[in-house]
Amino acid sequence: MAFKKLKNVDSIDLSFNEMTELSYLDLTDSLKIFSLDFRANKIEIIKKSFWAGIGFLKILHLTQNNLISIEPSENILNHLLKVNLNLNQLNLLNEDMLKMSNLIEINMENNNIERIETFSRHLNNFYILDLSRNKINFIDYFAFKNLTKLSKLFMHDNLIKNISFLQNIPNLVILNMHNNLIETLTTENFQNMIHLEKLFLRNNK
Fold this sequence. Notes:
Layout (H helix, E strand, L loop, with lengths): L10 E3 L7 E2 L12 E3 L7 E2 L1 H5 L6 E3 L7 E2 L11 E3 L7 E2 L11 E3 L7 E2 L11 E3 L7 E2 L12 E3 L19 E3 L10 H4 L7 E3 L5
Parallel strand pairs: 1-3, 2-4, 3-5, 4-6, 5-7, 7-9, 8-10, 9-11, 10-12, 11-13, 13-14, 14-15
């Protein structure tokens, strides 16, 4: 797909089609295109070449696809601000997936993610993360150490037991972890959260 000549278009809606993968899009000269909508397709994979052609894109909607794999970009993406990946089939979150230095929000609700190892060190401005309604049962203690500006974290409706990782997220304002399997709370879990305003822990163990 090439949209190189669409000089005055600011958004493209390709939702509710039959697309199965995303590869190279030539948006490199389309300075006004800030939003792409691929909702409700049948996309299973995002190819590495896709990231090379998104130009100055700021918002990417991929809700309600069949995504099982995201090939990481070879370069740091400087313009993306918001990515919606909810209602897909992703089962892994690793450091290479999100090389997006100005990303502020990502929604990965309703996927099949089970483990969180670590987030990219390039997420310098990231402050909203939704991982609710997955199958998360393991979170590395240092998984969030690179997300220094993270202020809103939604992880409700998972299978989380251990929340020691929270000690490495000092700037949280909102934390939602209801409907998990948390058995024990200690003062150490929350002692660094001096900015916390809303805490949801209902329906745990």
